[in-house]
Design a protein that fits this description.
mainly alpha, Vanadium-containing Chloroperoxidase, domain 1, 68% helix, globular
Length: 227
């Protein structure tokens, strides 16, 4: 749901594009000066670290991981992985499982509305140049045409994990591991910088907690009315 619209050919992404006039890209591209505000200098330096980590991941040979990471990141497209998990919980999880499933899907929907509209428009960061970084073809997926910041896949994963584990705490560890792996897969496959993933996780987890809290309050109020 909160994932990005994709281009049909990953290897063609970023070629022939005019120079970006977006604030995020101008901020990263302009050389640092001593007259810059300290906050601007810190943001620029963090952006350079972000790019360096992305290039390091791209340059590290991982033939054993490439196939599984590509399959996992594709499975998380349009939140299929999380919606499938919610369906299983709804069918076999009893009353608490149904509540967890509904809460998780609500968290994904809320996160999608926040990430895909205001946040991506505000961030307006161009996608990484997978060709320039040398991302192997064996791990690539289609490059989305939406802005890079924050990662929608990571946000959905974190939102679902936070919401569901609030209702069923024992699921926190396995879902958290799956969500973290999905987040990494976005960097591994070349479509996101690490900072995009970190931001997505923070946003998604926060929204997931808020949705779960609201759901808990609703259940409690309903229970008092039924007494």
């Amino acid at each position: 749901m909160s994932e990005e619209i994709e281009q049909p050919h990953a290897s063609d992404a970023g070629r022939g594009e005019p120079p970006s006039d977006r604030l995020a890209d101008r901020l990263e591209a302009r050389p640092a000066t001593t007259t810059d505000h300290p906050v601007v200098r810190v943001l620029r330096e963090l952006a350079e670290v972000d790019k360096a980590v992305y290039r390091a991941v791209a340059a590290t040979p991982t033939p054993t991981l490439d196939g599984p990471m590509r399959a996992l990141t594709s499975a998380a497209d349009h939140s299929k992985l999380w919606l499938g998990t919610a369906a299983v919980l709804f069918v076999v999880g009893g009353r608490k499982g149904r509540r967890a499933a509904v809460t998780g899907v609500a968290a994904i929907a809320s996160t999608s509305a926040m990430v895909n509209l205001p946040m991506k428009l505000a961030g307006a960061r161009h996608r990484p140049d997978a060709d320039a970084a040398g991302v192997p073809d064996s791990r690539r997926v289609a490059i989305p045409i939406s802005a890079s910041f924050p990662s929608g896949h990571s946000a959905s994963a974190a939102a679902f994990t936070a919401a569901v584990s609030h209702v069923v705490p024992v699921l926190g560890a396995p879902l958290g591991l799956a969500a973290a792996t999905v987040g990494y897969s976005r960097v591994h496959s070349g479509v996101h910088y690490p900072g995009d993933v970190v931001a997505g996780v923070l946003v998604g987890a926060s929204i997931g907690e808020i949705v779960a809290w609201a759901g808990q309050r609703f259940v409690e109020r309903k229970g008092r009315r039924d007494v």
